[in-house]
Write a structure and sequence with these properties.
By secondary structure, the chain is α+β, with helices and mostly antiparallel strands. The chain has three helices and four strands; from the N terminus they run βαββαβα. It is elongated and about 85 Å long.
Length: 152
């Protein structure tokens, strides 16, 4: 069966247990239609980039599933009809990544994978100097033209 990842955002005025109850509800919908949820993650309440239905925050959740397309379509249909779910995103993937998602990892764990990218404290590259090699800026004359003076 194909592998999918589903992320949905629930309303901010739900409690944590109600939001986790939505995860269980939609997991059973998949199971009833011949699929199974491999892993689920509750990411918590996060601030969104823009308001959705007058909400600035939302409960985020991730479901990793192994289900037929008909089961996924039924789950998405029920999510879109549910009043507490604001947004749904489903992606078909080739394989599920092992371990926690990036949202669940601690910042130190994520930054350890980045390596040294030459940020602050790294070596500085030499910048080109335009002092002596541009004649239009007075490089070979040793002076800079003023705005009021005629050009030679």
């Amino acid at each position: 069966m194909p592998l999918y990842e589903h992320v949905f955002i629930a309303r901010q005025d739900l409690s944590n247990t109600q939001a986790e109850g939505l995860i269980e509800h939609f997991s059973t919908v998949l199971a009833d239609n011949g699929g199974k949820v491999v892993e689920n993650e509750y990411w918590g309440v996060k601030t969104m980039a823009y308001k959705i239905n007058k909400n600035r925050k939302g409960h985020y959740a991730l479901l990793k599933s192994d289900a037929p397309a008909a089961a996924v379509q039924e789950m998405e249909r029920l999510m879109r009809l549910h009043d507490d779910v604001m947004r749904v995103l489903t992606i078909k993937v080739d394989k599920h990544n092992e371990g926690p998602s990036v949202q669940m990892q601690k910042r130190e764990e994520r930054d350890g994978d980045r390596g040294d990218r030459g940020g602050f404290g790294g070596e500085r590259r030499e910048r080109p100097s335009f002092g002596g090699d541009r004649p239009d800026r007075g490089g070979d004359r040793g002076e800079r033209p003023s705005f009021g003076a005629p050009r030679r």
